Amino acid sequence: MKLEDFKNMVETRLKAESGNATEKSFLLEAYRVAEELKQMKQADDKEKINQEEAKTNKTDYNAVEQKRVATIFDYERMCMSFEGCDTCPLSDYNNGEKVKCDVFILNNSDKANEIILKYLAEHPAKTYRQDFLEKFPNAPTHNDGYPVVCAYNIYNDSNFTCENSCVECWDKECKEDA
């Protein structure tokens, strides 16, 4: 039975004034409860509508595909990793356009971005932590796997600030000549 039908039945029985006082009292209480339920349902429906409107009015950033863009530093890392241009995928020998890499990047930025990102995925940057633990595999480490010693004391790099935690320094990209 729908709420509205129940309410109508209660109203009909109250108007008929049949039955004893207990039955009328019960019917009045039932009517009051039915009215409260109706108001609660209306409020719930209104809330659902507001939630749906809110969903349609804002961008769901989790649903939007975030496209990673290579930086100039990524390009530099890739470029510096090759002995010469002949093996670089952006070079005029390999880019399919037969143009120098700077022209290729300007004219085909999306394709150049994909090439650089592919290189980065295939050649992840080595961190100071990785470099140190490769050279000194038995060095003492904290429970989190980071060396006990300070990275600055080992590498003497001006990039280390020693302001926050050693983890930040150990996770920095290691220079090839370190």
Describe the structure.
This protein has 178 residues and is mostly helical. 56% of the residues lie in helices and 0% in strands. The protein has helices at 3-16, 21-57, 72-81, 101-107, 109-122, 128-135, 151-155, 166-170. Helix 1 (3-16) runs antiparallel to helix 2 (21-57) and helix 4 crosses helix 5. The longest helix is centred in the first third of the chain and has 37 residues, at 21-57. The termini are far apart. The model has no long low-confidence stretch (mean pLDDT 80).
Which short descriptors sum up this protein?
178 residues; mainly alpha; 3 domains
Strand and helix map with partners:
Blueprint: H1 3-16, H2 21-57, H3 72-81, H4 101-107, H5 109-122, H6 128-135, H7 151-155, H8 166-170
Helix pairs in contact: 1-2, 4-5
